């Protein structure tokens, strides 16, 4: 499906007025075109949870963690942050740790350091629209029904995700 109108027209009118007479001396119209956001599908985290067969604990943990994600898809958790997240979710800190482990095992997160995680950019990302508009995500299934996610970027990125 193609988008009918990919540009948005923005017109700006500037009038130069003679302050003594109130007469408009010059009328200048500037028209610029900006890209509209392309068509998209809104996907809820609960749907991602279902696709990846996450438990309720994993889904709640994912929701809490993506709020902490930076523009490089990284999440760095301090002990205090984990305590606050546990309180917000009304779960024990140990349950949160298990939820994080589930997300690592499912391939949503990759542990890259002590309490330092990378969110799989094939699944989700955070950033300005200008930075992420060229990302294309494909959801595929192999012959045995296993979910395969593939994303294409304008730049090279490699992330090993456990299967």
Describe what this molecule looks like in 3D:
The protein has 163 residues and is α+β, with helices and mostly antiparallel strands. The protein has two domains: 1-39, no CATH class; 45-152, Winged helix-like DNA-binding domain superfamily/Winged helix DNA-binding domain (Arc Repressor Mutant, subunit A, Orthogonal Bundle), CATH 1.10.10.10. The protein has five helices and seven strands, in the order E-E-H-H-E-H-H-E-E-H-E-E. The two termini are 33 Å apart.
What are the salient characteristics of this protein?
7 strands; three-stranded antiparallel sheet; two-stranded antiparallel ribbon; elongated; Arc Repressor Mutant, subunit A; 5 helices; 2 domains; alpha+beta; 163 residues
Q: Which topology of the largest domain does CATH recognise?
A: Arc Repressor Mutant, subunit A
Overall tally of domains: 2
Mean pLDDT across every amino acid position: 76
User: What composes the largest sheet?
Assistant: 3 strands, antiparallel
From N to C, what is the helix and strand string?
Answer: EEHHEHHEEHEE
Task: Determine the fraction of residues in helical runs and give it as a percent range.
Answer: 25-40%
Largest beta sheet: what is the strand line-up? 3-5-4
Topology:
Layout lengths: L6 E11 L6 E12 L9 H7 L4 H11 L7 E3 L2 H11 L3 H14 L2 E5 L2 E4 L9 H4 L3 E6 L5 E6 L11
Antiparallel strand pairs: 1-2, 3-5, 4-5, 6-7
Helix pairs in contact: 2-4
Sum this structure up briefly.
The protein is an alpha+beta fold and 163 residues long.
């Amino acid at each position: 499906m193609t988008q009918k109108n990919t540009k948005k027209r923005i017109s700006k009118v500037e009038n130069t007025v003679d302050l003594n007479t109130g007469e408009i001396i010059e009328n200048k119209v500037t028209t610029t075109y900006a890209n509209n956001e392309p068509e998209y599908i809104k996907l809820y985290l609960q749907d991602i949870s279902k696709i990846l067969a996450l438990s309720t604990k994993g889904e709640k943990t994912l929701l809490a963690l993506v709020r902490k994600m930076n523009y490089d898809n990284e999440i760095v958790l301090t002990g205090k942050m984990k305590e606050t997240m546990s309180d917000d979710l009304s779960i024990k800190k140990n349950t949160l740790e298990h939820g994080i482990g589930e997300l690592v095992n499912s391939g949503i997160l990759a542990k890259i350091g002590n309490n330092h995680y990378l969110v799989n950019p094939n699944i989700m990302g955070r950033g300005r629209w200008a930075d992420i508009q060229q990302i294309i995500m494909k959801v595929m299934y192999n012959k045995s029904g296993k979910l395969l996610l593939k994303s294409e970027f304008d730049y090279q990125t490699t992330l090993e995700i456990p299967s």
